[in-house]
Amino acid sequence: AQSVTQLGSHVSVSEGALVLLRCNYSSSVPPYLFWYVQYPNQGLQLLLKYTSAATLVKGINGFEAEFKKSETSFHLTKPSAHMSDAAEYFCAADFGNEKLTFGTGTRLTIIP
Amino acid sequence: DADVTQTPRNRITKTGKRIMLECSQTKGHDRMYWYRQDPGLGLQLIYYSFDVKDINKGEISDGYSVSRQAQAKFSLSLESAIPNQTALYFCATSGKPGLAEETQYFGPGTRLLVL
């Protein structure tokens, strides 16, 4: 079955440290892939998306993600965490039916 | 003004009551979606609509119904609310020709508590 898996429901990093949030997908054909961020009491906001153009995708707020077909992964990174990055992050995939399948989310905490 | 609005933002209701959640968008998008979010489960698709005459069930449509009154309006109803429908509900929209060109834009959410 087609699915999206986010490893780690909670991740904590120190301010200024590298942020790495993991996302893997399961499908025979690479999907379109998305990362969304949800700040407290808000809706979801798109960070970045992969639509088969470039494997390294740059998004807003200094985030980027790299699509690796061999690893069926689309991990999200940011070189230096900021306090304002504290939020919940969702990886999602479109497996070709114009619907999004979401991972279960990763809550990112930034330690001062 | 927000492109995707949801009303109400918060609602408390009792088991067995009928409730409607409304979504409006000013983006001119054809596609609209309803999701529910539960802690630890991410977002699950309830219903979606690709145009006014097209309504489709999502992963978890049981206990819910929808109405697409116009291109800009998509309502979600709980005919007889039950406590396990307590959740955060999101409406989203996207434009043609699909997610390769457009992404989904989300409303601010409706927090529903069923007692």
List keywords for this structure.
heterodimer, A: 112 residues, mainly beta, 6-stranded mixed β-sheet, 0% helix, B: 115 residues, 7-stranded mixed β-sheet, 4-stranded antiparallel β-sheet, 56% strand
Describe this structure in words.
The complex is a heterodimer of chains A (112) and B (115). With 112 residues, chain A is mostly beta strands. In chain A, 0% of the residues lie in helices and 52% in strands. Chain A has no helices and twelve strands. Chain A has strands spanning 3-5, 10-14, 19-21, 24-26, 32-38, 44-50, 56-58, 64-68, 73-78, 87-94, 101-102, 106-111. In chain A, strands 2, 5, 6, 10, 11 and 12 form a six-stranded mixed sheet that branches. A four-stranded antiparallel sheet of chain A has the order 3-9-8-7, with no helix packed on it. Chain A has a two-stranded antiparallel ribbon with strand order 1-4. The N and C termini of chain A lie far apart (41 Å). Chain B has strands at residues 4-7, 10-13, 19-25, 31-38, 42-51, 54-57, 65-70, 73-78, 87-94, 105-106, 110-114. The chains are: A mainly beta (112), B mainly beta (115). Chain A binds chain B through residues 6, 9, 32, 34, 36, 41-46, 49, 51-52, 90, 92, 94, 98-100, 102-105, and chain B through 4, 31, 33, 40-45, 48, 50, 58, 90, 92, 94, 98-100, 103-109.
Structural class of chain B: mainly beta
Question: Strand share of the residues of chain A?
Answer: over 45%
Report the largest inter-chain contact.
A-B, 24 and 25 residues
Mean pLDDT of chain B: 92
Mean pLDDT of chain A: 93
Task: Tell me the number of strands of chain B.
Answer: 11
**Strand-and-helix sequence of chain B, N→C?**
EEEEEEEEEEE
How many strands in all of chain A? 12
Helix content of chain A: under 10%
- Shape, principal axes of CA atoms of chain B: globular
Helix content of chain B: under 10%
> What's the main sheet of chain A like?
6 strands, mixed
